[in-house]
Write a structure and sequence with these properties.
With 206 residues, this protein is of the alpha/beta class. The chain has one domain (6-205): SGNH hydrolase (Rossmann fold, 3-Layer(aba) Sandwich). It contains eight helices and five strands; from the N terminus they run βααβαβααβαβαα. The protein has helices at 12-15, 25-35, 53-60, 78-82, 87-104, 133-153, 162-168, 184-205, and strands spanning 6-10, 44-47, 71-74, 112-115, 157-159. The longest helix is centred in the last third of the chain and has 22 residues, at 184-205. The protein starts with 5 loop residues before the first strand and ends with a helix. The model has no long low-confidence stretch (mean pLDDT 95).
Length: 206
């Protein structure tokens, strides 16, 4: 059986800022899939800390990739929200990114998975921000709702890791030293509770 090929598009949460590449969630997901009987190659990750949807789009367009991929994930928007970018502008760029993701998946919507953005408002890093945790949470929910609506509209899958990030909060061992990004343990929770079940569902859809 040929190895599954995974392309993960996103920002610091996708690349795994603060953890080893092998502990970022795309690599953990690939290993989990292998344990479920799906031989999976090391994932291709196109992500960078600080990327907005616009910056990811600017890099993705000329990127040297090798589609079609068996699974393409798209997790973007937290930097748009952090910078208080207009939701309509984010929506426009997200729609274009989603179209790119579909093309990289060989126009198979069942092989595209949108991943929600976590709630950084529950982390120690948020204490230095003038916005309240409730304000941040409401904005995160708005951006996630925009993305989810578009992902489901094209027949792709959606997975929510935001709830997991909120449960993790400031709990010991859940975050990196920067007090913002998830640690390997929290990424493992994302995979076990949300990403792996959603991915298996997508693969079974064909």
């Amino acid at each position: 059986m040929a190895e599954l090929r995974l392309l993960a598009l996103g920002d610091s949460y996708t690349i795994g800022e603060g953890v080893a590449p092998t502990q970022a969630w795309p690599a953990q997901l690939a290993r989990a899939l292998s344990k479920c009987g799906y031989a999976c190659a090391a994932p291709t990750v196109l992500a960078r800390t600080g990327w907005t949807a616009e910056l990811l789009l600017a890099t993705l367009a000329p990127a040297a990739l090798a589609p079609p991929y068996d699974l393409v994930t798209l997790q973007i928007g937290v930097n748009d929200q952090y910078r208080e970018r207009a939701p309509g502008e984010f929506q426009r760029d997200f729609d274009t990114l989603l179209a790119h993701a579909l093309r990289r998946a060989g126009e198979r919507a069942t092989r595209v998975l949108g991943v929600s953005i976590p709630d950084w408002g529950v982390t120690p890093f948020a204490r230095q921000d003038a916005r309240s945790s409730q304000t941040i949470a409401a904005a995160i929910d708005q951006f996630n709702a925009l993305a989810q609506t578009r992902v489901l509209r094209v027949g792709a899958g959606w997975v929510d890791v935001t709830a997991c990030s909120r449960r993790a909060g400031r709990a010991p061992g859940q975050l990196c030293a920067d007090g913002l990004h998830p640690g390997a343990v929290q990424y493992a929770r994302w995979v076990d509770s949300a990403l792996l079940p959603a991915t298996l569902h997508q693969l079974q859809r064909g």
